Amino acid sequence: MTFVDEVKNAVTPRAALFVIGVLGLQLLFIASYVGALHKPKPTDVAFGVVAPQQLSQQLVDRLDGLPGGPLDPRTVSSAAEARQQIMNRDIDGALIVSPEGRTDTLLVASGGGTVLSGALERILTQVEASQQRTVRTVDVAPASPDDFDGLSSFYLVVGWCVGGYLCASILAISAGTKPANRQRAVIRTAVMALYAIAGGIGGAIIIGPILGALPGSFWGLSGLGALVVFAVGMTTLALEALTGIVGIGLAVLIVVIAGNPSAGGAFPLPMLPDFWRAIGPALPPGAGTWTARSIAYFRGNAVTGPLLVLSAWAVVGTALTLLLSMRHRPGREDDSGTETTRAAGGSTAA
């Protein structure tokens, strides 16, 4: 046997295609993470201004015209309203102008990301200094001292996402990516649901009672974790049922390559480039990270949209998995090379 023949036996055309696909994922991984995170800067940060009527619009215009457009300022009626909008996650910060003294108050919420609150403090300190004024910072939703840079919620959600697609991948590798029939698809869905519940509760136990890294409702975080794991797992199962083993790579593309850098974890959404800021809220890591921070620091506010996003991934993934299992025909081989049913004239493994 020649060397060329040995190469052909060692690396089949199918394996070569997979290697090329993996190379593509590797390059996309680098491009996505570096593209999203190499130069963070605040852009159009939702920001409130509380000032005397005669100064309010003038200050809004000044903040709106800052070089690079870091702020998206709007007038807020009172300090109490500004605090409420921050807690509702409608705005990320607010400036309360003192009508008498020369010291104004900056409201921030480091629970939504300490990098962003720090950026707001730097920007407003410079703006105030140019007007011979000073600013004091008040953190209305402070991050836990055991939650460095507000990253614990992000890493918690990343762990849940990894568990979801790894569990689905194991189910595929061990018994074929395409379920032989609807009953088997239902069983895989049930297994995924049980795993999701265990993963959600386990993650909440680690992040809360064991490490004390994240405050907030234990059962709220557990429920979120179960939904994240199930959504990612069922999406992966659906992609596997649709495309075979390639579905694992597609799940990595959606969740890891596109989802993680756009999740607002390392840098909150207002500090990401436009593309990643646009896709982040629609993907499981972004929706999960936003919800985890809301549960931990914002009294569970502003979670309806992200929970609907996660639910949509879960429902669509489940529906596709079950529907595609009905198309699978007896006697066909799945991607693992194992025939999925008993063919006429011979016995095969399920």
Describe this protein's structure.
By secondary structure, the chain is an alpha/beta fold. The chain has a five-stranded mixed beta sheet with strand order 2-1-3-4-5, with helices on both faces. The C terminus is likely disordered.
Short description:
With 350 residues, the chain is of the alpha/beta class.
Comma- or semicolon-separated keywords:
350 residues; alpha/beta; 59% helix; elongated; disordered C terminus
Largest sheet: 5 strands, mixed
Structural class: alpha/beta
N-to-C SSE string, H for helix and E for strand: HHEHEHEEHEHHHHHHH
- Mean pLDDT, rounded to whole units? 90
Cα radius of gyration in angstroms: 25 Å
What coarse outline follows from CA principal-axis ratios? elongated
| Residue share in β-strands | 5-15%
Poorly predicted regions: 331-350
- Walk across the major sheet and give the strand order: 2-1-3-4-5
* Separate helix tally: 12
Terminus-to-terminus distance: 36 Å
Count of strand segments: 5
Overall helicity: 55-70%
Question: What topology does this entry show?
Answer:
Elements: H1 3-10, H2 13-37, E1 45-50, H3 53-64, E2 71-75, H4 79-87, E3 93-96, E4 103-108, H5 114-130, E5 134-139, H6 152-175, H7 182-210, H8 218-243, H9 246-259, H10 274-279, H11 284-297, H12 304-327
Parallel strand pairs: 1-2, 1-3, 4-5
Antiparallel strand pairs: 3-4
Helix pairs in contact: 2-9, 6-7, 6-8, 6-9, 6-11, 7-8, 7-12, 8-9, 8-11, 8-12, 11-12
